[in-house]
Amino acid sequence: MERAKLEYNSEENRGKSLKQDLGLIINNPRYSDIKIICNDKKEIYSSRAILAARSEVFDGLLYNGMKESYENQIYLPTVNSTTMKIISEYIYTGSIKEPLTKDNIVEIFNAADYFQLLPLVDFIIETVKDELKVNYRNNYSPELLSKAVDTMILSEDNILLNMLIKAVSTTPLNTIEFGRLSIKALQYLLSCTHKKQKPFATPEYEVFRYSALLVSKEISNNTYKTLMELLPILKELEKSIKVNNKWITNRQKVAKELAALVKFIDFRRIKEQIITDIIEPLEITPTVSIYRSYNSYCNNDTRGIPQLYNFKKYSYEIRSWSACIFVNASSESSDQ
């Protein structure tokens, strides 16, 4: 193998900046004694001593007296090479140049949390917090929540996960296009807010409607179009619009897929007439007698602490927390 060369190696510049000098040996085979094999089978070159000095996890992995202590490579089955390059940059220099985006932030957070790089974890959290406060038009929290529930341990102590739950729960579901929020993410959202005093922006009927449409969209376009006709938005129902019954293709499949979501819907918050005239005839949920078993109708049609929004496009009034997420963010963090 041809010897790797440093691009920045003049006597004049070397030694002036530790950060820049260390940055030049990231993923450089000439200055490495171990290879990290990522889950995409790509290799990242690194230094045992630097990894161990910067991360207790690497210290335990590389200096534990087991085979990893003597081999010249380790395998990380949960980290891809793109993320590992960013983590390596932080380990070596204490900062990252790569912008945090909806495409990488969950992976970077997971890796930073796994390797116990707490300053980087804190930086990501603070960056998200700042963007949630400032940027309420480019809302990528549904996509991030969908990715998070697939890759994170679902814990009430996960700060980033809690922030995404709050962001999505305070965004009206009918403003979130289908395909942005996964069924699994919606289920987790509903489970986290079910019968709890947390901010929420969507009336319970609209929660049911969105759930049914999301499930049907995954099954077939015909099923989705039929349910769109049979489940008007709440404003139309309030105008006493009559809905004609219609055969639903894949009815049993919809009912089966919807069951995981229905158990987290509080039907007490939906008017009985809507249940008997609109929901029960669909035959995709339990019978109305089960709905009535939840005691009486709840005066508030929205779970938790109702939140109203004021997006010009959707005519909602803001009363509290803005829900949003970002496309890009400043990504440099000072090592603490």
UniProtKB/TrEMBL annotation:
Residue span, BTB domain: 32-100
Superkingdom of the source species: Eukaryota
Signal peptide extent: none
Classification via Pfam families: BTB
SMART domains: BTB
InterPro entries, sorted: BTB/POZ_dom
Protein name in UniProt: BTB domain-containing protein
